[in-house]
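Researcher: Structure for this, please.
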Amino acid sequence: MGAVQRQEAGRGRAAAESLLRGAADRGEPLPDDAEPDAWTAFDQGVRAHHRDRCGGTGPHRTDLALCHPDGRIRERALHAPHPRPELVVIRCTDWVPQVRRRARHVLAASLAADPPSVLLRLTPIVLRLGRREQGGWALDLFENELRSPAGSPALAALHESPDLPTRRLAARLAVEAGAGDAPELARRAAAERDPRTSRTWTDAALARAAADAPDDETVDALLGGHGPMVRSAGVTLLLRAGRGAEAGRYLTDRSALVRACARWAVRQDGGDPYALSRARVTDPDLVTAAAVTGFAECAGRGDAPLLRTLLDHPAGTVRAAAVAGLRLLDTHDAALLEPLLDDPSPAVAREVSLSLRACADRPAVERLMDRVGPGWPPHTRRAAYRLLRARGGTPWLGAAVELLTDGDAGLRRTAAHHLQSLWSPSRPPDLPSGDPEVGALLDRCTELFSDHVIARMRRHLGLPWRESTTNGR
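Model: Predicted structure, token format:
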């Protein structure tokens, strides 16, 4: 469950507790636009309490009764006028057949009376509950209604729903129905932020444009898309649209997928993606981080000197891309890269730490231990710590233990997490056996482990087990 789902579930439980305490006599326990997770948590929260708290008087008596642990009370509540629609949907998946039948009758009647508003309001929760054992009935009902003429206004509106599963359903049903021409489908693909929904629109646009040469409106819409898959589809259509010469522009796209499609399109159009990429890297007015990365993707080891010249570029993003490009070419120069651990750009320090991990000639432990100290910028300290952890052994253990009390909360959490991962029966810690220094360092972080784990680690490392090492726990 993600953070938003947890938040909504907590909202639903809080509403249930408030209602049961009689603290929600005014207003609704949950608003009409509450997320599905809030409603399911509300239902569970009410049922989790004793029966004698769930059937009292008040304006929300029906809401409580619809969630009562007794199925007979839930069924009677469904005969009340205007029961909460979200709770009716939940009862459509009830484990008691009589409750399910009555809830389904109520939901079907509501849908027949006002299809657009019911579909707009309840489709998100119907989709969530469709995963339950008895959830298929309402899901089939809603899908069939959305396919009908009466449901078409709601289907069009659901394309803008903030609920991801709802947008995905609306896109699938619209494509199945053949809605929209190629430019409209392309525009929807370009505007969509959800990759799955965007893929649905993109595939539909490509299929619609397959019969004839794609029009410029479709191609331009795809090329301006938010998602890499959308832009890559636009690049592949450039050739069929007679615009192959434009493919070179996308050799510097921020996405590796789009750059790969651009290289293919340039070759198909008779061009040389390597020459075009090199020209951008050697031109001070054109060089960007994406241009450097794109050049490295089609370069060879003989191009490493050109990338090394970019390690002095004034833009940190370009310097970082040059470091990553050298790593992509599998050319590692520890003497050249090590001073860049102190680079003012966090991106550069991060890329350098990744490259130096692959070097046999890694920086000296003393230099790394110094860079982990509190006198250095946070990104330099993190890069040095990553290299120490890759090296392992007593120096890394000492650095991690020291960071447990560091002023940087991020480094404290990282060190604690790594120390807690120190012991695994399948992969014991790579530390020297019988080393008193290791024993002293473990004594300083015993609060991170159980007595059992501490005992196993010390036994594995040939260190004496002392009950006092667990701080009296």
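Researcher: Any notable elements?
Model: Confidence is low (pLDDT under 50) at residues 468-473. The first helix runs from residue 3 to 20.
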